[in-house]
Design goal:
- This protein has two domains: 63 residues, no CATH class; 72 residues, no CATH class.
- It is built from no helices and 16 strands.
- The strands form three sheets. Strands 1, 2, 3, 4, 5, 6, 8, 10, 11, 12 and 13 form an eleven-stranded mixed sheet that branches. Strands 7-14-15 form a three-stranded antiparallel sheet, with no helix packed on it. A two-stranded antiparallel ribbon has the order 9-16.
- The radius of gyration is 15 Å and the shape is globular.
- The mean pLDDT is 86.
Length: 161
């Protein structure tokens, strides 16, 4: 990961972060999270034992620092065809409906389900035959002509829909 210029960080409560963004909670042991850009944003854990799990931003009262407006790139050699079983958790899915992330979401009834959530505000969760998933991806941002890599992600587990 590159060093990130401090002026690119926005200190704020998580509820005010506009995704897609990478958010670092203001705790010593905190790992970075992906904040989606949809109307009801989700927070997706990107490391540790809960990698790929997500919660709604509204459910968390956390402060920290974010880098907003991040972009994504994928490793073409990590592609897969999305399915209903053994789906890579945290994989990015690119299709006609936009960019989605496959996550584990705990529903109100306590069950953990594998679901897709839009990464950008204009995307949807509609699946299509043209969907292609990727198990390795990374985020970056530009400052002028300089590219700054923020973090890399590789799927480490699978789940069923």
């Amino acid at each position: 990961m590159d060093y990130i210029p401090t002026h690119l960080f926005t200190p704020s409560p998580l509820s005010q972060v506009k995704g897609p963004a990478i958010f670092w909670p203001a705790r010593k042991d905190a790992e970075p999270w992906l904040v989606t850009g949809e109307q009801d944003p989700m927070v997706v854990a990107l490391s540790s034992g809960i990698s790929g799990r997500c919660v709604r931003v509204a459910d968390w009262r956390v402060v920290g620092h974010s880098v907003q407006g991040v972009q994504f790139e994928v490793d073409p050699s990590s592609r897969y065809k999305p399915a209903f079983v053994d789906e890579p958790v945290g994989g990015l899915i690119l299709g006609a409906s936009g960019l989605r992330i496959s996550t584990i979401f705990e529903s109100a009834n306590g069950f953990s389900d594998l679901r897709d959530f839009p990464v950008h505000a204009d995307a949807s969760t509609a699946a299509s035959d043209t969907d292609m998933g990727f198990t390795r991806w990374r985020t970056y941002i530009f400052e002028g002509n300089r590219r700054i890599d923020l973090l890399s992600f590789e799927v480490s587990k699978v789940g069923d829909r």
